[in-house]
Amino acid sequence: MTERAARPTRLYPWQDRRGEFSALKTIVFVGVFLPGLWLLARLALGTLGPRPMIEINHQAGLWAIRFLLATLAVTPLRYVWRWPELVFVRRTLGLAVFFYAVIHLVAYAGDLAWDIPKVASEIIARIYLAIGFIALIMLVPLAITSTNGMMKRMGGIQWRALHVLIYPIMALAAVHFFLQSKLGVTEPIVVAASAIWLGLWRLIAARLGENRIASLAGATTLAVAVVIGTAFGEALYYHWKVGVAIGRVLPSNFMLKAGTRPAWIMLGIAVLVIAVAACRAYLAAKAPKRPRASGRRVGNEA
């Protein structure tokens, strides 16, 4: 019996392509539900504040954009960490983005007492709401075509061309997040920097190849550039927003009393990514060589 014939016709989210239990897929599958379950628990306990729907709206939006970044990070990390199996959690993460974005919108409508005409007028009148709504609409075809069956019907080339929409969606989501942030902008800056990092990775990989940019030297160089760019980006933002001189903001990255800076967070992420990559490269070098098995390589999964 061939490998294809032996493959089960139906797979559950916690199974690999052979129908066996996958710890990685299980952890991710359970993980995407936890923020929603936590919100439900807080709603039941009455700890969401005086406007529970708006708190659900905010939290669902935050998790939608976090899972969107995680979805985009799958391809770079599978190369940088030499972990091809990561591709099999991308579908779960992508669907989580869509459903949390829907909850984000539904909770906003709930906060407006389910007055749909008012919801529509607010979306039209407020630019940041219009941008977020466009991003949600663009997510719909990606969610609909996330199955293996739709991939086969569309064909690989058309399917991949459609799912490139994830990048403009990320750009719109980052702008939406930035514009609606009224107090601290640390997380919006981190989101924007992460989106730029992932976008640059894709552009450089398309030009130079995944293996060169995924090498320790290539990944480290790009990470350092992003961390430095984040520090300057924050300084430029405050210069544009409130007129503070760039030379006054940049030194705050070297002052503990200035609080956690976006560049510090990006540095922490970069150190984690490079450290894991270095460990996996070391373990791969020490592992005994095994003959390469014939057959197809691990494929893509949205």
From TrEMBL:
Transmembrane segments: 21-41, 61-81, 93-111, 123-145, 157-179, 185-204, 216-240, 263-283
Gene (name only): msrQ
Annotated ranges, domain Ferric oxidoreductase: 60-173
InterPro entries the UniProt entry points to: Fe3_Rdtase_TM_dom, MsrQ-like
Membrane topology: Multi-pass membrane protein
Summary of subunit composition and partner proteins: Heterodimer of a catalytic subunit (MsrP) and a heme-binding subunit (MsrQ).
Protein name per Swiss-Prot or TrEMBL: Protein-methionine-sulfoxide reductase heme-binding subunit MsrQ
Cofactor: heme b; FMN
HAMAP family: MsrQ
Subcellular location: Cell membrane; Membrane
Co-factor: note: Binds 1 heme b (iron(II)-protoporphyrin IX) group per subunit.
Record-linked Pfam families: Ferric_reduct (PF01794)
Family named by the database record: Belongs to the MsrQ family.
Species: Kaistia dalseonensis
Function: Part of the MsrPQ system that repairs oxidized periplasmic proteins containing methionine sulfoxide residues (Met-O), using respiratory chain electrons. Thus protects these proteins from oxidative-stress damage caused by reactive species of oxygen and chlorine generated by the host defense mechanisms. MsrPQ is essential for the maintenance of envelope integrity under bleach stress, rescuing a wide series of structurally unrelated periplasmic proteins from methionine oxidation.
Keywords: Cell membrane, Electron transport, Flavoprotein, FMN, Heme, Iron, Membrane, Metal-binding, Transmembrane, Transmembrane helix, Transport
Primary residence: membrane
